[in-house]
Each structure stands twice: as C-alpha cells, then as structure tokens.
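Structure ticket #2291
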Amino acid sequence: MKVTFDRLQAFIHDAMMALGLPDADAAVVAKLMADADLQGSDGHGVTRLVPYARRIQAGGLNVKPTIRVVEERAGTALINGDNGMGHLVMSRAAEIAIAKARTTGIAWVGSQLSNHAGPASLYASMPLAQNMIGLYFAVGNANHLPPWGGLDMLLSTNPIAVAIPAGNERPIVLDMATTVAAYGKVKTKAQRGETMPEGWMIDRQGKPLTDPTRADEGMLLPLGGMEAGYKGYGLALVIGLLAGTLGGAAMGKDVIDFNHDDSTITNTGQAIAAIDISAFGDVDAFKTRVDTLVRDLRGSERMPGVDRIFVPGERSHDTRVARLTDGIPINPALQRNLDQLAEQLKIKKLA
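Resolution: structure written out below.
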C-alpha cells in the first residue's frame, strides 16, 4: 500500500490526539514522523507509532510535558524534556540553539529526560533555513553494542547528523549511526520478513547473524566492522558522553531498552548545535565554495561500474521527491499493526 504524505501525517496526528497529546503537540510529532517516512527513514517513521502508543498507554511517556530550560549561558542551554515525546523536546532544542547562534555565532543545547525523536537528520537540518550549520547527537534507546572486544551491551547506536547548506546545490546532510546499521533497520527487516546482510550483526561467538528475529541473541557491529570496529566503538562512546552524560541523561548501563520496557522513564539524552556561517565570513561565498566542492566530487573520475557519485543527503532527497509523487509505501505487516491501533483508538484507518 502507498499513501500520500498528507494522509500519513493526518493519521499520525489523529492517533496522537487520541493518545492524549494536545493538538499543537500532536501536529509537530505527526509532521516529523511523516517526514521520516517521506525521506526514506522507514525505521524511524510511522513504524514507531505502535511502540509509542504502547509506551504512552503504559505510563512511560508524558503526553503533556512542561519542557523547560534548567541551565543556561549565552551560547549554551540544557533543557529538561519532562519525559515528553522526543520530537517535541528536540524541536524546542533546535529553536533555542538557532536563536542563541544568531548572537553568539555558535550554540549548543543539550537535553535530559527526553525520548526517541526519530531520524537525526530532521533536527540537524532545522538550522539550514537560517543559513546555519546543524549538528545533532543522541544516545540510542537500547544498548546493542558492547565495548570493543567485550560482550556486555553498554553502548547504543548513538547517531550523529550534520547538515551544511549549499547555494544552487542541495545541502549536504550526513546522518549515520555509529554501528554498521541502525537498529531501526534491523526492526524493519524483521517486520518485512527479510534477512539482514552479513556484517550487520554477530552472535556472542562472533559468527554472522542474519535473522533479524534473533537480534536479541547478538550484537550490532560498530562502524569499521570486524577489522576496524574500534573506531566505531570510540565514536559511540564519545557521542554518548556528549549527548547523554554531559546533560545528566542516561548512558551506559543506565540506558533503558524501550523495545522491551514500556513503563520505565528512559531519560534519553540528545544535543544539537547550530553554527551561524556569517560569524565566519560571507554566507554566499561559503555556499559557492560548497557548490564547487560538490560538483568536483560528483564530476570526479568513477571506478568501473559506478554510474554516479553521491554526496550525503542526495539519496534521501531523491526518495523524498519520488514519494511525494508516488506515495509512501506501507508494508502489509505494518498496515495490519496500524489498522489494529486505529480500531483500538477509534480513529479512521490509514487506508
């Protein structure tokens, strides 16, 4: 099944309203969740609606949070999300970071007591409209990564995203987990009845694990895989310290696995930074230099069999354009889950 962006957004909005979110908050969450599916981040969009609903109904998430600043200086802030939807917390963090960066040139806003917020790129991209560079860091909502050489799950996928504006070219938007694959992709594979490629996960004996339904028996591989995974492990650790520990949020053994625990407060940590390009020189000149670099990369000599060289963010942009025209795909298993949720919440089904 394929649905339009507007229909998907309206469905998520209706569900969030039925779950108790105020209208304005439900609209923010619905827009961001539908945006995730529109750009191809299928593991972080409407597929998360049922788990979100389950957590709300179990009392593990506050539908009417008071999001507030608890620490603040000229170029920094720490916000307490009051255990609200992460989409609301990080939207507010981005607003604060952008406002501060206009004065200070660069601003950093961290969060505590937040929740899962969807794809990192959505928030890193928010400063783009203000001629700013955006950076986003987060502690994942479940530990699937041990320290390099270990077996205890003490780290998560801990993503990083960076968005850099260009002139006539599209912005450069890097969004990546510090593991070979984000766990959301593993869940999507399981939902679709597909197998995982070798190299995503291994079991506790170090052998490849390709059945996503057995993911709890194994561990994600850090960036670098079996040969250089210490690099991904180091990145996961540092990003977790910046996004979680620095702001008093959960990190390490304190991270709650929200895949299996719907009622415990996760205290998810995230951070966003905004850099005002004008603080470093002429904005148009910077964008022109970015355009030149992008064209140099795209026009460089290609290896045999390579049709096109991409820069980060182009594939998501192409997916967004295609899905605006052709619709957003909803796989049968997900559709059944959403239909059941609609019946439970007494709202109109997605189809």
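Closing remark: The CA atoms of residues 50 and 338 lie 7 Å apart.
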